[in-house]
């Protein structure tokens, strides 16, 4: 069973599943209609993450975003 929790952006890891829907406005680059549709369909896998100057660059398999390190991001977690 899975559930959603909020994590600080600075605490994300590669492989985490995050909800991109609330982060669409923070996308790096121009989003296609397909990217927007994919983001609203569910969760994206974090593929790269780096923190610098209080901000976090998050790469996913759909699109990249930049957020503040202390921003909350919705993460899908598998219950153990």
What would the keywords be for this entry?
6 strands; mainly beta; 1 helix; 10% helix; 80 residues; six-stranded antiparallel β-sheet; globular; single chain
Number of helices: 1
Percent of sequence in beta strands: over 45%
Read across the widest sheet, the strand sequence of neighbours is: 1-6-2-3-4-5
Radius of gyration: 12 Å
Number of strands: 6
- Please tell me what the overall shape is: globular
User: Which residues sit in consecutive blocks of at least 5 with pLDDT less than 50?
Assistant: none
What does this structure look like?
Helices cover 10% and strands 46% of the residues. It is built from one helix and six strands. It has a six-stranded antiparallel sheet, with no helix packed on it. The longest helix is centred in the middle third of the chain and has 8 residues, at 33-40.
Brief synopsis:
This protein has one helix and six strands. The chain is mainly beta and 80 residues long.
Task: Present the secondary structure layout.
Blueprint: E1 2-8, E2 17-19, H1 33-40, E3 43-52, E4 55-60, E5 65-68, E6 72-78
Antiparallel strand pairs: 1-6, 2-3, 2-6, 3-4, 4-5
